[in-house]
Batch of 2 targets.
Target 1
Amino acid sequence: MDRDELLTNAAERAASYLRRIRQRSVAPSDAAVAGLQRFSEVLPEGPSDAAEVLKQLDEVGSPGTVANAGGRFFGFVNGGSVPAALAANVLAAAWDQNAALRVMSPVAATLEDVALGWIRDLLGLPAESAGSFVTGATMANMTCLVAARHALLARSGWDVEAQGLFGAPAFQVIVGEEVHASLRKAMAMAGLGRDRVTTVPTDSQGRMQSDSFPNLTAPALICIQAGNVNTGAFDPAREICAAARESGSWVHVDGAFGLWAACAPERAHLMQGYGDADSWATDAHKWLNVPYDCGVAFVRNRAALYDALNLQAAYLTPGALRDPMQWTPESSRRARGVEVWAAIKSLGRTGLAEMVERTCKHAQRFAEGLHAAGHTVLNDVVINQVLVRFGDDATTQAVIEAVQRDGTCWCGATVWHGQKAMRISVSSWLTDEEDVEWSLDAILRVAKHCQGR
Ligand SMILES: *Cc1c(COP(=O)(O)O)cnc(C)c1O
């Protein structure tokens, strides 16, 4: 096969994989997972034909995938890929652009600029904020934290990039009890300490209680979230941002998926006050439905982000326009803006609003169906997340395992306020009403069996 045939063959295999995804089990079969052992060969001594390599990848690899690209994967918060974004990803793979500098890829830099502007607009973030593309919300959180760290320490006359944190003036870091684990990790990486934080108690939905908020006597770093990973709940941003402003504090928002609620007019009320924060971390690979991986960071104080992350070397001649790598932790990098541009261009403002609202409605339908069958829904379903419990911990765990084995859909486990629960996250553009009814029937059937009724 020449290269043309090989690429056509790859596209055919990809299309065929997606065509059949609705009919297959969401979790791969045990046999398919066991079959992956066929990849464990000794290092090949000589070359193989590229068509044979692709054939093995498809025949052995495709059955070993989780059907995340279908409409019935409800684990974690995983989106699918809207067709335009997937197709753009394929073309961009052929381009093989390095998005570090504009001179390396004018198209990557241009599409990043456009996509960042569109996201700012969609999420209601300040027009003056700087943005950057990263791998996901974990790194977006990290990116925002180093900008915050820069600004808070610069105010005390400390150059943290030059001197590090050794001997630096201390500042308070405030999080909610329900802070996402990835933000704690980002704090560990940024030298702020995973545990050296003031923790604000949260309510039954996981929202920070503003009446338990510490008195701010000096500029602090306050981390709030738009969209709790279990309940989907939003912290009271308006009150917190107002208090922060008086003390010169920095408010960072972890809005990995929740920030996208801003796109749907019916959900936009949840976003009140979030535009008053100082930095925002979000994912495009969750609710925007672009291929992995893609996260985005925004920082109101452009200089703080640039000062924290720019890199100079004689051979990296600065251009007159924005060079992507000066705003992000990485240097060489794939052109993530391409798929984001394609997704937003293909959906438009109304298409995106419809997608966000539709997934929320599906979550609502799951909650109603589960409640009607006598199961306990633990959260207020404000966006696309549902937490459900089937009797006691052991039964709930048994139901989760049986749902995953059944293969109609896939839901994961969590612990909410000391109780085992099943999470349903409806994040894929592809999920339709039939997928929801089919999955709901499967969950109820499995639960009945596990509860012996
Ligand atoms: C998913 C998620 C993260 C981490 O995102 P990655 O893209 O996996 O790095 C952080 N915070 C929240 C609230 C999330 O839902």
Target 2
Amino acid sequence: MDTESFRREARRVADWVADYLRDVELFPVLSPAEPGVVRAALPSQPPPSGEPLDAVLRDLEELLLPATTHWQSPGFMAYFASSGSGPGILGETLAAGLNVNAMLWRTAPAATELEQVTLDWLRQMVGLPEPLFGVINDTASSSTLYALAAAREAQTDLRIRELGMAGRPDLPRLRYYASAEAHSSVEKAGIVLGVGRDGLRRIPVDDRFRMDPVALRRAIREDIAAGIRPFAVVATAGTTSTTSVDPVAAIAGICEQHGLWLHVDAAYGGAAAVAPELRWVLDGAERADSIVLNPHKWLFTPIDCSVLWTRRPEMLRSAFSIVPEYLASNQGTDDDAPNLMDYGTSLGRRMRALKLWMVIRHFGTDGLAARIREHCAMASTVAQWVEHASDFELLAPAPLSVVCLRAHPRGLDDPGTLDTLNQRIVERINTGGRYFLSHTRLRDAYAIRVAFGNVRQEQRHARGVIDALRHSMDDDVG
Ligand SMILES: *Cc1c(COP(=O)(O)O)cnc(C)c1O
């Protein structure tokens, strides 16, 4: 693609994206596609000779768009928001243009140092104290895996890095702890690290879905008495079902007492701390050994961008650093010129800091805080409506931008009937195309989740989803 064709095609693509974002509310948020339609519509073999961009864009519009679920749409209120803002999309484009690979400081000095600077800005924005070393990974699942690998490595006497774990009768069983509401990625990390699903002990939660620190302390003592070696605790600031925030300060005290690595999973909730009045979500996280926060969730940065901070970068390095000869000559040594390949399993890494840096520079701290505040206000609008509606109820507190609720008409108390009623309400809304909602189970009841956090959402979308819930319920009951 020569310079002039690239210039021309790039303009067309930019126009295409601008139009898409302008019109995104016209598409059904949840794609109605059936499994296999895209595969059936596309040629099963690659083109023998090159094709023009026209043909590709036509397929994008005719074949791919109808099978796209529109995360960029303000009607997307399922799971957690993950919306790419204009400056984030431009940052992604520029990063692809430069296409550096930040394995070593030497292979990408600007990308490496920009990552350090941007993550130090973000640290200040959420009110965490220095020193905190940060790296950007693809997802929170990777960040948590790496943090727990460092926690396992911190049990230095076990020499797991050198000797592995299999076939070693000298090893104690290892255990780490997280609440019953912690994310599945916490459990997955245990599978990868060889401690097994049994290596994770789930701690019960209180009536607001927060980890019970008394139960945590008891579990750790029981395990030690049984000859098991505790090595880490994962506290969650913003759980996946209800956005509950564990009592991190109390958990930190227990970790300090027992010498356990504390990892705080703030993948979604950490962003709230950009608004000064919501900074409490990270209370106690200043005592953590590591923290994960995903700018690709609630900070308007296109996926993927997950920040892992640690107060003990040397432990991450001892878990992961291997320097083969072909990379050795360009070794940076000090913390000002880190080699980012040393902090996880990937050697190659994209310049992910650029899009985050551009998002922060575009909105400014105040602009980001204002949007986060608005999203919480939208959740309050929905929560207040639920509290005043005689036939709906809240199923959990809504401290941030997510509301868990269900329809509960008077006199209809059978659990199974309520579950199917609420399931039908969600299905009807999702097939309607304007909104996409997801669900969870709370105390064994089906709960509708309404999640705000999309950069294009306004109060009218909160009022709109309230109307949709009301109508869907009325249509059902007749
Ligand atoms: C979304 C989320 C994750 C997983 O994030 P990925 O980046 O998709 O791996 C983990 N923990 C919490 C609390 C989350 O909200």
